[in-house]
């Protein structure tokens, strides 16, 4: 009795690479991740900061500075967690800069209303932010991405510290172990704010130059491609 021979069954090689498809999350799911929850907390805290500032009392200034500091810390923490936990999302890219601008502009406008900050400085800062945001939108429509420059980062850091000093407002005695100094936080805050205005204007010029250069390079590339076509 003969036995039928069957062809050997082919097997996939052991070293065949595995293809892992990462699931794309939705907006609702993104809204519930920890970095975005911290960003939304920062937005929720803004009215509390503004209300405490407009009280104008030393106690109100102190608690406004505390809440503002918590908001500023969440700005660092949510970005760190988003990168560490690989939770960078479209919603986060929208909410994070929005929360920063609302916090900065809201506090500056509130302090202008009570006479702590000159209106001209706030107008320049707000005009700069709106102009650069519009420029970035136009750049994206042209396929150009404008990354934050060093001047813009220095401007943002100075503004954060300046606003904290202006919120504290009063002059305080600061002890350094063997000696004591009297610090006028209002004057320090104004000096830092004026310095941030300088960096805001110079960095705006840098962004405009980057945008113009990128658009010109794109136009040259398109012109060369058109000449190559038969």
Uncertain runs: 1-5, 14-23
Mean pLDDT level: 79
Rg (CA only) = 26 Å
Major sheet size, sense and barrel closure? 2 strands, antiparallel
Strand element count: 2
Order of helices and strands: HHHHHHEEH
Distance between the termini: 73 Å
The best one-word shape is globular
Oligomer: single chain
Number of helix segments? 7
Characterization of this structure:
The protein is mainly alpha-helical and 230 residues long. Helices cover 71% and strands 5% of the residues. The chain has helices spanning 27-31, 34-55, 58-84, 90-113, 119-141, 150-168, 185-228; strands spanning 171-176, 179-184. A two-stranded antiparallel sheet has the order 1-2. A hairpin with a 2-residue loop joins strand 1 and strand 2 (179-184). Helix 4 runs antiparallel to helix 5 and helix 4 crosses helix 6 (150-168). The longest helix is centred in the C-terminal third of the chain and has 44 residues, at 185-228. The radius of gyration is 26 Å and the shape is globular. The N and C termini lie far apart (73 Å).
Please name the defining characteristics of this protein.
single chain, 230 residues, mainly alpha, two-stranded antiparallel ribbon, 7 helices, disordered N terminus
Please sum up the structure shown.
By secondary structure, the chain is mostly helical. It contains seven helices and two strands; from the N terminus they run ααααααββα.
Question: Topology of this structure?
Answer:
Layout: H1 27-31, H2 34-55, H3 58-84, H4 90-113, H5 119-141, H6 150-168, E1 171-176, E2 179-184, H7 185-228
Helix pairs in contact: 2-3, 2-4, 3-6, 4-5, 4-6, 5-7, 6-7
